[in-house]
Amino acid sequence: MDIDELKRIVREEDLEVPVLYGVGERQSEGVVLERDDTGWKVYVSDERGGVLGKTLRTFDNEPEALEYVLQKARQGTRYHRALRARSA
Hints:
Blueprint: H1 3-12, E1 19-20, E2 31-36, E3 39-44, E4 57-59, H2 62-87
Parallel strand pairs: 1-2
Antiparallel strand pairs: 2-3, 3-4
Helix pairs in contact: 1-2
């Protein structure tokens, strides 16, 4: 998977948009992808923009990291939609 494919799937499935390499708006319980000297990092952000609990995972390559971003975006979207439906 590459960035363009991830963005296409996010649009088609109407998922919450992850923050990719600092581009996008950080939200509480939003998915974040970053890269540093040790590899690609994916996590769910807390209300202050830090790592929520034990959600941080590190990957050696971008395609695997993007697959995990998609997985977490799907989970987060399902969770937030269920919460909204419950409160309606």
